Known about the structure:
By secondary structure, this protein is α+β, with helices and mostly antiparallel strands. The protein folds into two domains: 2-156 and 287-296, Ribosomal Protein S5, domain 2 (2-Layer Sandwich), CATH 3.30.230; 161-284, GHMP kinase, C-terminal domain (Alpha-Beta Plaits, 2-Layer Sandwich). The chain has ten helices and eleven strands. Strands 1, 2, 3, 4, 5, 6 and 11 form a seven-stranded mixed β-sheet that branches. It has a four-stranded antiparallel β-sheet with strand order 8-9-7-10. Strand 5 and strand 6 form a beta hairpin.
Amino acid sequence: MSWLIKVPSSTSNLGAGFDSIGLALNLYLELEVTRSDKWEFTPTTDSLQGIPIGKDNLIYQIADKVATQFGREDMLLPCAIKMKSEIPLARGLGSSATAIIAGIELANLLCDLQLSSDDKLQIATDIEGHPDNVAPSLIGGCVIGHYDGKVAYTKVPVNGVTFVAVIPNYELKTKDARAVLPGEFSFKESVQASSVANVSVAAICQGDWGLLGEMMKKDHFHQPYRKSLIPHYDELYNYLSKEAHGVFLSGAGPTMIAVVDDNKVESIANIWKHDFPDYEWLLLQVENHGVEVVHQEANPI
């Protein structure tokens, strides 16, 4: 028996939805899994070169954690795993969340845990600390979630827009991006910040991308602080905002994403690429189906 595990990437926050709103995108982490006599992770794409190749790999560590949680660590038998990823690391596109989801799926398969989607999401959020990246990578679409030890969430359909990712050639670690955030807000500031987030959720549910874009400008939670870590932020924000519904910092950054109508995105993106050739530009669609597991009965993948 062998398996293919395919996990979509994600973008999170979408402006004011800090640690609570995420969106699955059509960039993927793929694992080709076969039984073996030892644990071995083999990267097959440049973005994964240098990752741990044994039991120190994050995916194994998550799988082992889940197996141990359910008392089935003896069923977590060695596998050879070929890894392929289209997701840039440490760019705010959920690469670590895909590894968490992949590890949970691996334990679920090898240990016959028969976990439901809600079970998997609870485990992933317990590990990650918030649902905004792991939830869309698991179930797809746009997910609005809350976590206080137990996860509550809703999934919202997204149509008609493309998410244009502008990716610089440097990394930004999440821990560094969190270090610049304020420790607390006043009551007045909290009311203002939450009202922006509330309207943002309503705009997503209504598909009102223009309104969402206006709320992205008013975010109090993270973008005003994190943009200081991103030298190109103001220049790109002002430039992209001329044509996009809205522009936001993807996750902790440094990737920025512009929300653009499907019917004009290609012509606009060609101009943007010409004017800013030093960045990687990706035209991304919403992945509505989340993680996929394919069972292979015959030969190894």
